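G., the chain you wanted modeled:
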Amino acid sequence: MNHSPESIILLGGGGHAKVLIDLILHCESFQVLGILDPELVIGHTIKGIQVLGTDAMLTEVYEQGIRHAAVAVGSTESNGLRKKLFNLCRDLGFQQPALIHHQTVLASDVKLCEGSQIMAGAIIQTDTEIGEGVVVNTGSRIDHDCRIGKHAFLAPGVTLCGGVSVGESAFLGAGAVVIQGVNIGENAVIAAGAVVTRDVRDGALVKGVPAK
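Predicted structure as tokens:
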């Protein structure tokens, strides 16, 4: 039996929101009701989706019967804003479904937690766990037995070899490579193109080949 798609509200109206809108257009479960973004003019449209107001409207949206939301901001200077919006939606009672592009490859036993977002071309292998609010961006490759902590952000083209652990709110820049068995600390930043061959402590910034 076919069911009508449920409405979902997006928080954020930049480039990441455009990617999510395209993802959801190919998803039978949801349709985008609108966008909330304090920096955009009400009535402005992004890929045909209207800006309805600011984050302050979330309570009103919930009272109107909308029960699904998605954080649609990318990683700015840190993942702090994504985490803040995720927790705001959770506190208000919104469900934040895992959103998976139809052109991804997921092993059958991959665990996806609430609010995770998997973009086009990503490959995630067996016995991997993706934490809540995590973004696995376009063309990223995650091999077996990896653990990605809450609100971590993997930019396009990141490669994680087997058994890698990524801490909460870590950021991995475009094209970064992490070899097998390495642990990335919480809030760590891995620069674009870095090759990480040893553990990275919490809050560290590393870059280069090999990364230092």
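The chain has a mean pLDDT of 94.

Shout if anything looks off.
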